[in-house]
Design a protein that fits this description.
Layout: E1 5-11, H1 17-24, E2 30-39, E3 42-49, H2 52-59, E4 65-66, E5 69-70, E6 72-75, H3 88-91, H4 98-120, E7 128-133, E8 139-144
Length: 145
């Protein structure tokens, strides 16, 4: 059975759902994040990925700190997504703010750009005109590449 959800314990009380989502967004595409009360000094987060590879990547994170506090990451074998996670309006972004939607688009664009760079390894060159001062008082321009 493949696991798609990780349990993140000891999450700082000041950490938001966006902090947790931002931290794990590089592990894989996130389907849902749920924050729950923990104890008097921390919260628990459940991060569900679209596929098991995202959860596997998240489990590899060691020495993880979210909002300055060390967290513990484990497979959440008994976690059930709440009904709100499967609500079509919610999954289509019906209750998300414009800022959250924009951040989501930015993250996807950044990931695609990074993946393109890793796949194609483009080489960049640039050109600059640099003034050259000669010993005779003349100023010339040399192109450096």
């Amino acid at each position: 059975m493949s696991i798609r959800t990780v349990k993140v314990s000891n999450v700082s009380l000041s950490a938001s759902e966006q902090h947790v989502e931002g931290y794990f967004s590089f592990s894989g595409e996130i389907e849902y994040v749920e924050m729950r009360s923990g104890d008097e000094s921390s919260k628990i987060a459940y991060v569900t990925f679209k596929d098991s590879q995202g959860a596997d990547n998240a489990l590899l994170l060691s020495d993880a700190k979210i909002d300055g506090q060390s967290v513990v990451i484990a497979a959440a074998t008994d976690y059930q997504l709440p009904p709100a996670a499967s609500d079509p309006q919610e999954s289509a972004g019906g209750s998300r703010s414009a800022l959250q939607k924009t951040v989501g688009v930015f993250k996807k664009t950044a990931k695609k750009t990074r993946d393109f760079g890793l796949k194609h390894r483009p080489e960049f060159t640039f050109e600059a005109k640099v003034p050259i001062f000669g010993g005779n008082g003349n100023v010339g321009v040399e192109t450096k590449v």
